[in-house]
Amino acid sequence: MGRLSAVSLIFACGTALFSDGYANGIIGAVNTILTRLYPGSKFGTQSYSDILTSIAFAGTVCGMLLFGWISDKVGRKAGMMSAALIVALFSALSAGSVGMKDNVSGTIAFLCVCRFILGIGVGAEYPCGSVSASEQTEQEGIAKNAQHRWLVLATNTMIDVGFVIAAFVPLVLYWIFGDNHLRAVWGLSLGLGAIPAFAVLLWRLRMEEPECYKKNSMKAVRIPYGLALARYWKSLLGLSLAWFIYDFITYPFGIYSSTITNNVTGGSSSLTVVFGWAVVINLFDIPGTVLGAFFIDYIGPKNTMACITHRQIFGLLSQAVIGFIMSGLYSPLTNHIAAFAVVYGIFLSLGELGPGNCLGVLAAKTAPTAVRGQFYGIAAAIGKVGAFVGTWVFPQIINAFGGSKTEKGNTGPFWIGSGLAVVSALVTFLLVKPLTHDGMKAEDEAFRQYLEEHGFDVSVMGIPGNVSSAASDMEKDDKLAA
Q1: In the chain, fewer beta carbons within 10 Å around the N or the C end?
Q2: SS in 3 state form for the chain?
Q3: Are the C-beta atoms of residues 210 and 137 closer than 8 Å to each other?
Q4: Rounded distance, CA 358 to CA 351, Å?
Q5: Residue among 330, 358, 356 nearest 344 (CA)
Q6: 389/384 Cα distance (integer angstroms)
């Protein structure tokens, strides 16, 4: 397999996570438009606006857990094809959300249903697409010192690009349609999400299951969950806690985006200004994820995410430091918006360089092939629960500190968030094991040996009838040696 072909397979598996960034990013603009279209309706209240924002999280958690099992027991390709189809179909249906006689309640109810099912498809991409992409990074044609890099660029970088495009599309559509056709702006913004999902669906048609899945899966036999949990519980706990905390603390820092916008624009309500600044803010993520992709192979995902190595602080710890600085210097920074924007941009970039890039890599490459989809799905789902909890809890924390119009109300949650970032770094350091290049192959062999030692018949592993077994590989090596 050539290098270009091998890299193409990684991106065919992982690029659909663009849909995650786009789907989660676009709903903010849609919320803004719907609030203006229906100012006198219930939409302006918490009952509609927050539900619409959060409903995709619930679907995503369901998709991660359900398709984690499908990924391991039915197949990576079946899961990826189903995920892309769900995202394409329900992105298109979201564009046509309309209640009877333009009833607002009916419109939002139908949109919420579409968003929930869309969330299932988005969640499915994590244990299916990301896991398959991770397995492709150890195929022939991929240099050892670039295995983690290609996985990051094909997954987390795609999510961040999705957020940027999700901010840019409504701006362009608003330029085209203007204030008198906002219905077209939000409908097309949602519907255009079907195009990349459908393109990825076609891209995946001729794909085969990864070789390690053909050889090491337990598709046709009962998975010994007790043995798997006994061996991997510590890493699963560590990654799940770290992911929960990271997703939980990313949301309060989103408050700074509105602070920047309000200070720069003087509270302007122009959609051109609001959408334009959303593009700028989301662009801050890109340098961090791209730079981090080149760090990760040289110092390792665990060190990039959380640890102090080579006298440099990376990931969570460095992000926590910036968060403390932003909290302590809140008043002077908000009076000098250029400095504030720079510090905020550094904070976002460090988040992507560290945990944003590394959590997915660690979750995808820690467990063996037989349970990799479910391991990843559980860790990612717990992370999304953290995001969901954060959207509901932090407004209460702000109110407890005095409200959003007070300095304590704006800075209090950031002290908490930065402190939790340090906790997440410690959890990662203590519970998560470091990765090595070609580590998944070594872990598969170690898991086989572990199962044998506990009386499990490893000869039943792999897809029945598949010639790519451990024995046949040894025979091929013997023939080549002869």
Answers
A1: C
A2: CCHHHHHHHHHHHHHHHHHHHHHHHHHHHHHHHHHHHCCCCHHHCHHHHHHHHHHHHHHHHHHHHHHHHHHHHCCHHHHHHHHHHHHHHHHHHHHCCCCHHHCHHHHHHHHHHHHHHHHHHHHHHHHHHHHHHHHHCCCCCCCHHHHHHHHHHHCHHHHHHHHHHHHHHHHHHHHHHCHHHHHHHHHHHHHCCHHHHHHHHHHCCCCCCCHHHHHHCCCCCCCCHHHHHHHHHHHHHHHHHHHHHHHHHHCHHHHHHHHHHHHHHCCCCCHHHHHHHHHHHHHCHHHHHHHHHHHHHHHCHHHHHHCEECCEECHHHHHHHHHHHHHHCHHHHHHCHHHHHHHHHHHHHHHHHHHHHHHHHHHHHHCCHHHHHHHHHHHHHHHHHHHHHHHHHHHHHHHHCCCCCCHHHHHHHHHHHHHHHHHHHHHHHHHCCCCCCCHHHHHHHHHHHHHHHCCCCHHHCCCCCCCCCHHHHHHHHHHHHC
A3: no
A4: 10
A5: 330
A6: 9
Is residue 122 within 8 Å of 19, Cβ to Cβ?
yes
Angle at 146 between CA 380 and CA 205, to 5 degrees: 65
Amino acid at 190: L
What is the widest separation between alpha-carbon atoms in the chain?
Answer: 81
Q: Retrieve residue 305's tokens.
A: 């995410």
Give the whole-angstrom CA distance, residue 2 versus residue 15: 20
For helices 255-265 and 337-351, the axis angle rounded to 10 degrees is 150
**CA–CA gap between residue 417 and residue 281 (Å, rounded):** 19
Angle value at C-alpha 6, between 84 and 153, nearest 5 degrees: 65
Q: Specify the pTM.
A: 0.86
| Count of beta carbons in the 10 Å neighbourhood of residue 424 | 29
Closest among 446, 439, 377 to 76, alpha carbons compared: 377
Q: Which residues touch 462 (CB under 8 Å, ≥6 apart)? A: 214, 215, 216, 217, 468, 469
d(CA 173, CA 186): 9
Q: What is the pLDDT of residues 378-431, one digit of tens each?
A: 999 999 998 888 877 877 877 888 876 777 776 777 778 778 878 887 888 888
Which of 96, 130, 92 is closest to 110 using CA atoms?
96
326-365: per-residue pLDDT in tens? 777 777 876 777 777 788 778 888 888 888 888 889 999 9
